[in-house]
Amino acid sequence: MAKEFQTINFDEEVLHSNHPVMVDFWAQWCGPCKMVAPIVDELSAEYDGKATIGKVDVDKHPGIAEKYGIMNIPTILFFKDGQVVDKIKGAAPKKEFIVRLEKLINN
Q1: pLDDT digits (tens, 9 = 90+) for 34-87
Q2: Which of 7, 26, 41, 56 sits most deeply, having the most CB atoms within 10 A of its CB?
Q3: C-beta atoms surrounding 30 within 10 Å
Q4: What is the domain count for the chain?
Q5: What is the CATH number of the domain that holds 24?
Q6: Which residue range(s) make up the domain with 101?
Q7: Is 33 a catalytic residue?
């Protein structure tokens, strides 16, 4: 199961992580978000120990979404060393997430 990033833990879990981090910005009412959710959960288990993978509910934590200019969901941001280094807007196949994660892990 992917981590649930919140205002209280975002800085520590994402910006100060020793691993690359993938953050799925989503909402309960978002159809495409529901398509991406199982992929995010699978990747969380598959990349345990190599990358941190989680999600931010934009309705519960609008400040985080606003800080990163999230206008459409799902939007997936990839962080390394506290910086956004890549982005996927909209639903994408699992292999696209894997390519981006592998690039971050191996660089």
Answers
A1: 999 999 999 999 999 999 999 999 999 999 999 999 999 999 999 999 999 999
A2: 56
A3: 18
A4: 1
A5: 3.40.30.10
A6: 3-106
A7: yes
State the amino acid at position 31 in one-letter form.
G
Quickly tell me which residue has 């309705």 as its tokens.
Answer: 59
Q: Which residue is catalytic, options 2, 21, 23, 33?
A: 33
In sequence order, the 6+-apart residues with CB closer than 8 A to the CB of 6 are: 56, 60, 61
DSSP states along the chain: --EE--TTTHIIIIIT-SS-EEEEEE-TT-HHHHHHHHHHHHHHHHTTTT-EEEEEETTT-HHHHHHTT--SSSEEEEEETTEEEEEEES---HHHHHHHHHHHHH-
Rounded to the nearest 10 degrees, the angle between the axes of helix 31-46 and helix 94-106 is 40
How far apart, in whole angstroms, are the C-alpha atoms of residue 69 and residue 46? 28
d(CA 18, CA 14): 9
Q: Which of 14, 30, 51, 77 is catalytic?
A: 30
Clarify whether 30 is annotated catalytic.
yes
